[in-house]
Amino acid sequence: MVVTPKKPSITTEATSQIQIGDTIKDVAQLAGGTNPGGSITFKLYGPSDTTCTKTPVWTNTKTVSGNGTYTSDNFTPTQSGVYRWVAYYSGDGNNAAVHGTCGDTKEISEVIVAGINIDKTGPNYAHDGDNLVFTYAVTNLNSSKLTNIKVTDDKCSPVTGPVKTNSDADGYLENIGTDGVNPEVWTYTCTIPGGSVHGLEVGSQIVNTATVVGSPPCGPNVTDKDTHTTKIIHPAITVDKTASPTTIHAGDTVTYTILATNSGDTPLSDVSVTDNKCSP
Question: Is the link from the previous residue into 123 a cis peptide, with omega within 30 of 0?
Fold first, then answer.
């Protein structure tokens, strides 16, 4: 009589998704074996290997001592993309070798890179008492979709928006918009009322920082900041007019000297002087 080895089953489930810098692992459940021994080897194939036929980027082997759960060590990917696992049970004298299949649904680990950018614009100069209007353009730097976008400004509230351009209606901030090339742009605005900047001293400036936060599909939130400086100016000009001589006879010539002085805190251009009784 010929006794054939028993064929156990192996089911696996790997880490599904991480941000780059985190770790992934694979878990294998061996069942139906007859006091199985041997080993389980976890093989991890890189993002460019969709058929698991190239050399694995990492291999890890665990000793088997009976039916049960076996977990690989942690692996830290250094490249983003889709990784594929295959777990191989070696078999022994009583049990046949079994393994998973490349591309099994629960044997795919996606490694994402998440990033967000905020570009803040506003007036470089403003008069004392002006409204200060700031605009914040938010974009996604990487391929992972972002949600829960929040923009704040440490000197301005409330920040309103967004107005979305090159964007579809799925609610995600994506790095490729509807034109298939450029990222979506979500634009927010905020206004500091003029009364809030009234009475500032000469040379004053308002420095305010905008912060954006977004949530990727996994891992910690991503954030970015941008700072803008607005100088509050107090332009002014004074004129001092003198005549020489101060006393004249009829028919004499009188010469006027007009001294224009910048008495404010910002350069002036296109200065012109007129006199209602003397020209040019």
Answer: no
pLDDT in tens, 139-179: 999 989 999 999 999 999 999 999 999 999 999 999 999 99
Give the position of tokens 């509050």.
232
pTM score of the predicted model: 0.76
Task: In whole angstroms, give the CA distance from residue 108 to residue 273.
Answer: 78
Q: Cα–Cα–Cα angle for 122, 125, 127, nearest 5°?
A: 115
The encoded tokens of residue 115 equal 């990033």
The gap from C-alpha 193 to its chain's centroid, in whole angstroms, comes to: 29
Q: Is 267 helix (H, G, I), strand (E, B) or coil?
A: coil
- β-bridge partners, 29: 11, 69
Strands (E), 72-218: 81-89, 98-99, 108-112, 116-121, 125-127, 132-140, 147-153, 160-165, 185-192, 205-215
Least Cα distance to 99 among 26, 110, 91, 53 occurs for: 91
Going by C-beta distance under 8 Å and a sequence separation of 6 or more, which residues neighbour residue 207? 155, 227, 228, 229, 230
Query: What are the distances in angstroms from CA 138 to CA 116, 167, 184, 210?
Result: 7, 12, 8, 11
